[in-house]
Amino acid sequence: MLGCLLLLFVDKRMTDSPQQPAAEPAPDIAGHGEPSVAARAMRGSVYSIAASLITWTSGAVRLVLLTRFLLPADVGVFTQAMVFVVLAARIYNFGLNVAVVHRQDEAGNLLPTYFSLRLILMTISLGGLALLTPWIGSWYNDMPLLAAVMLALIAAEVLNGLNDVQLVIMDRRLAFRRGAAADVISSLAMTLVAPLMAWQGLGVWALVGEQASGFIARSLVVWTGGQHWRAQVGWQSDTARWLIRYSGTVWFGGNLTYVLDRFDDFWIGQALGATQLGFYARAYEFARYSRRVVANPILGVFFPTYARLQQDRARLSRAFFRATSLMIRSGGLFSLVFVLTAPEFIPLILGKQWLPMLTAFQLMIVYTFLDPIALSAIHLLTATGHPQQVLRIRAIQTAFFIPAVIIASQHWGIEGVAIVADLMMLLGTLFLFGATRYIVDYSQTRLWLWPLVAVIGVGAVTLALTPLWRSLSPWAAWLGKGLLITGMYVGILWLTERKQIRSAWQMVWGALPPRLQQLRSR
Asked: Which tens digit of pLDDT belongs to each residue from 382-425?
């Protein structure tokens, strides 16, 4: 993990724009004397990844315990309910968060107008879904609790929507430390509440409790203390029109993203039932852990950073390269470990009742490796004012994905759907990275070469040792594979990129608070 963190701040020489001199840190646009945007982004990355280590640990414990205590059908009911609740959330968000981060001034009563728009849209979308819930529940004969679960999740989503306002404003002001604290406290609360409810035999309600406890804990952090934005309603017609106009393109693109993220869940629940949906949903949940550990905190930090640097191509290029290179390198390690140790991991840690998800889980690793890399490109395009590019690419992916999922599920079940998801994500990643070349300059070779060499080499060695793993006990094989994969992968990157890692360490250390820097000299 430390090596992955260091690679975030790879040496600027790894970009392919030598004709442009390195830009000196500029004062933050908020005023003179404040840390530069780059320094604040680096410090925010440190805070976010430190918080991510804690949330990853507690989240991993929580996910394993919940999986052991719950039935696949419980997970399937919750996943199906979330399809509709997330759709309602997409409607009331309307891309407003992206618009507020993109706009670098607060003229025209921006924040009160933004808050008022969100309240109006939240009332319409969540209230409308609550009215439709009994009718939706009648579609699913094998999910009698679906309607009740949906209503509980709608109530929790109200609190989540209010929290999101505060978190977006924190991101806009590059105040990442408080957001990291909210993530940690929320994760710990969920880890205390949800497994206890599952252990008590509450089934799907443990997953509802997980959501609600996290939102409540998060609100205690973001809405208290002296640093939060004091919510106020207000209205400025020109500002409202700008927000709606800018957000519209983002919103349509986001809705296509929702379809790509959730249509497979929706269709599996409709066509294959709650149990198969439970297997598929848990396969995806475990496969996406690399995104949770590194990609989510880095993407959260770098989206507002892209917006701040959108007029400085050289610095924007370095920021994009650094964020993306980290996700590629860390994602390669996580993908190798999960794919190659899955036959031991599932029966030992989750239980033999979850073995039917093995192949789908291994296939979904490809999707979850590419997903955060594609999101980095999406954030770049959106933050720099090019959401229409994302919309076009998402439309292409959707046109392929929907019919392919329907056909694949009929012939090959959840494994076929996983293959389609992989192909859809590969298609989108290729198009998105092609679009970024008009905005930033970087070397594709330096971005991809050594991680791919490490993935291929480590994978080949591990598979060649299959007779050895079969001769060992499951626990010994699991641990042996994990140590071999991690050691070889990190070793290859150290041999090929050690100069960049050393340079990165100095930059990371300089981004830490002075108190932590003093520890090095003691």
From this structure: 888 887 888 889 889 999 999 999 999 999 999 999 999 999 99
* Tens-place pLDDT, residues 448-495: 999 999 999 999 999 999 999 999 999 999 999 999 999 999 999 999
Instruction: Let me know: does 60 contact 187? Beta carbons within 8 Å.
Output: no
Q: Which residue has the tokens 């199906």?
A: 80
**For position 326, what pLDDT does the model report?**
81
Mean pLDDT, residues 305-316: 85
Rounded distance between C-alpha atoms, residue 331 and residue 42, angstroms: 20
Helix (H) or strand (E) segment spanning residue 245: helix 237-271
Question: CB neighbours of 471 closer than 8 A, spacing ≥ 6?
Answer: none
d(CA 160, CA 97): 14
Which of the 8 DSSP states describes residue 346? I
Helix/strand/coil for 15:
coil
Which tokens in the block code for residue 177?
């430390």
Taken in order 219, 223, 228, 233, is the CA torsion positive or negative? positive
Contact 124, 103 (CB under 8 A): no
What is the value of pTM for the model shown?
Answer: 0.72
Q: For residue 36, report the phi and psi dihedrals to the nearest 5 degrees.
A: -65, 160
Query: Can you give the residue ranges of every domain in the chain?
Result: 2-14+37-515
Cα separation, 386 vs 405, whole angstroms: 29
Q: What are 445's two structure tokens?
A: 């070779």
Question: At 231, is the secondary structure helix, strand, or coil?
Answer: coil
